[in-house]
Structures are given as structure tokens and as C-alpha cells.
Amino acid sequence: MQSKSTPPPLWREEFSVFKNDERYVSRRQLTKFLTLTSMAMFVGNIWILIRAKLHGKAAPLPVSPVAKLGEIPVGGVKLFQYPQAGEQCILVRTGEDAYVAYSQKCTHLSCSVFYSQESRDLVCPCHEGHFSIRDGSVLQGPPTRPLPAVTLERRGDQLIAIGMTNTGAD
Amino acid sequence: MFGYEFYLDPSRCIGCQSCLKACEECETHRGVSMINFDFIDRPDGIATAAYVCFHCEDPTCAQVCPADAIKSDEDGVVQSALKPRCIGCANCVLACPFGIPKLVPEYEQMMKCDMCYDRTSIGKRPMCATVCPSQALAYVKPEEMAAMRRDKPVNTFYFGEQKIVTKVYMMAPAERDSVSVDVVDYTWEQEDAYAV
């Protein structure tokens, strides 16, 4: 029993013994909420699709130097930022004359992947996601999409990043 | 509901137990009677009393329910515990000052008189009131009751310091406005005078 001086606690208001004062979410309310939310998401997706169709392809990515040839040893890595500052990428020298570069952001939950010398693949330490060093595809773990790959070009003794593939936009 | 009120008059109870049988017939809880039937002082007399739930305005049973299973609806009828919620803790059984709720072990659920809500909500009379031959349990309009009885219907009860206002009326002597129960005195038991 509540004494008259103290107001009833919040839980008592929410779970009132009187049916009329209850604040439950009814099945109908929940169904309405789910339906409207799904409809809103559907409309939003349609809008995104239409906008993508109308605007066509995005502007080409910038061309930026990544490293000098021979700057890193075979099996070594270099981190760089591409296509803009803050977008961390990883360059790996897989052979005497072979270089690959991928976005360092794991496609699962955006942890930073690293190059594992032992397994010769890119590993995400958060949830044991493994990506192939050859094309960035998923080898094991929770990620479902491949790592975005940086397209490299050799100009003289410079490695130049000229674009990205597997970004999800192409 | 529909202008009818429930009146209890234990002094008119003749102990026929028709109400128990009628209550058992109800299809919402067939075989289990929700009437509280007492022999007042069995060794010394034959007086009996049949009670239904008093349907308190601020039901103590619902207030103490930890599972939020007991609800008072818009008509002021306190319903049986909701089956999906009731955890069978018997808090309500212990808390009710009238001793109305019953824990049914087979169902692990509290069940109590809901004033035949399936009937009264559509204007019919509760099962017990339809069969009571002495109208110790009566479901009539207030003016009819006033015309038939000398007693005064009261619905205010004091249990120690707890004041309870109920939906169901109890017939009391005309000069009384409320019924008080001295809880300590009521729970006192004398030495076992009838020990064999």
C-alpha cells in the first residue's frame, strides 16, 4: 500500500493494476510499427536505387603515389591512406616484383586487418576473419564481402594507386 | 454493470452449497468452485457463510503480485491471475484481507471469483446469485435491494489501519457505515477447548 505522502514509483505507473492505465505495447501496435518501419525502409531503398541510377558513376578516384619500388622488403607491408585521408589501406609486397594493396577496413565490423606472414593472408584479429592476399576474397570467418582492392600502377620506380575495386559501389 | 450490484448477506446463508455447485458449472473454470464457503463455528453451530470476491477498488492481491498477473478491469472487476504470467507464488493468497484468492496447485495458478465476468459483462447475473435460494448472494439493482431488506449495504471495510472500499456490498446493521475487523483479535485462537 502506498502512503499518501510519497508518489507511486515509476514501475507502478507502467505496470498498473488497472487495465485502463496499463502502458503495454499491444500486439496491434507492434505490428503497426513493424509494418510502417518496413515500408519506410523499402521506400528508402527504392530512393537510394533511383538516385544511384540517376547520378550514374561516381567521380574517378584520385591518383596518388603509394611507395617506391624496393622501399619495403618481400613480405613487408606499408600502410597508406587512399582514396582520402583517414581511409587506411595496406600495401603488401608478396614477391620480388609483386605488390598488392587492399583497404585495411574489415568488411565485417571495420577492424583493421593485418598481413600474416605465416598464413600468407590478411587477418582480422577481432573475429578471426581471413582474406585472400591474391584477390581479397573471404577465406574464413564472419565477413561475407571481399576486401576492397586498390588498383596499383607502376610509373618508373613509383607505385601509384589509381582506383579501387570491390568497393560495393561497382 | 448494467445497474446491478452484488450483495452479500452471510446471515441469510443456509449452507445449501448451491453456489459452489453453480460456480463449478461455469465453463471458464469447470469443476473448480471460486466460492469461499465457511462454517463459522462448526463445533457449536451450523452457521455458514458463502463469499465471493469483494473486488476491491484498490486490490491488495494485485498490488502485491510480483508478476503483474492480476488486473482490475474497467468495470472494477478484479480478474483471476493471467495464466501466462502467474508464477504461483501465493503472495495474493496471503495478502488478501478477505482470504479470497485460491492457489490451484494443479494449474500452479491463482484463481478467484471474477464475478462471472463472461456473464455479468453482457448483463446476465452471476451463477451463484442465480441459484442462491435465500439470496444470501444477490445480484440486483440497488433500489430493489433497498425495498427488500432492512439491512444497510456497506462497502467500506477496515482491517486494522487498512481501509478497503469494495465493489461488492455486505449487508450490515442499519446503523453501520463500515465493517471493521480487529485483525489481532480475529487471528487469536483460544486454548484447544475441543481437544479430545
User: What's the oligomerization state?
Assistant: heterodimer
Q: How many strands, what sense, and barrel or not for the largest sheet of chain A?
A: 6 strands, antiparallel
Mean pLDDT of chain A: 89
Rg calc of chain B: 17 Å
* Unreliable residue stretches of chain B: none
Q: Per DSSP, what share of the residues of chain A sits in E-state strands of 2 or more residues? A: 25-35%
Radius of gyration of chain A: 26 Å
Shape estimate of chain A: elongated
Distance between the termini of chain B: 50 Å
> Architecture of chain B in CATH?
2-Layer Sandwich
How many angstroms does the end-to-end distance of chain A come to?
66 Å
Strand order of the largest sheet of chain B: 6-1-8-7-9
**H/E series of chain A, N to C?**
HHEEEEEEEEEE
Going by helix content, strand content and strand pairing, the class of chain B is alpha/beta
Basic shape of chain B: globular
Query: How many helix segments of chain B?
Result: 7
At the first level of CATH, what is the class of chain B? Alpha Beta
Extended strand count of chain A: 10
Report the top-level CATH class of the largest domain in chain A: Mainly Beta
Number of domains of chain A: 2
What does this structure look like?
The complex is a heterodimer of chains A (170) and B (196). Chain A is α+β, with helices and mostly antiparallel strands. Chain A folds into 2 domains: 10-55; 64-165, Rieske Iron-sulfur Protein (3-layer Sandwich). Chain A is built from 2 helices and 10 strands; from the N terminus they run ααββββββββββ. Chain A has helices at residues 10-14, 27-55, and strands spanning 64-68, 77-81, 88-95, 98-103, 114-116, 121-124, 129-132, 138-140, 149-155, 158-165. Chain A has a 6-stranded antiparallel sheet, with no helix packed on it. A 4-stranded antiparallel sheet of chain A has the order 5-6-7-8, with no helix packed on it. In chain A, a hairpin with a 5-residue loop joins strand 7 (129-132) and strand 8 (138-140). The longest helix of chain A is centred in the N-terminal third of the chain and has 29 residues, at 27-55. Chain A is elongated and about 80 Å long. The relative contact order of chain A is 0.12. The model of chain A has no long low-confidence stretch (mean pLDDT 89). Chain B has 196 residues and is α/β, with parallel strands linked by helices. Chain B has a single domain, classed as 2-Layer Sandwich (Alpha-Beta Plaits), CATH 3.30.70. Helix content of chain B is 19%, strand content 22%. Chain B has helices at 18-25, 60-63, 91-95, 117-120, 127-131, 142-148, 183-187, and strands at residues 5-8, 36-39, 48-51, 102-104, 109-111, 137-140, 152-159, 162-172, 179-181. In chain B, the strands form 3 sheets. Chain B has a 5-stranded mixed sheet. Chain B has a two-stranded antiparallel ribbon with strand order 2-3. A two-stranded antiparallel ribbon of chain B has the order 4-5. In chain B, strand 2 and strand 3 (48-51) form a beta hairpin. The radius of gyration of chain B is 17 Å and the shape is globular. The termini of chain B are far apart. Chains A and B meet through loops of A and helix 2 of B.
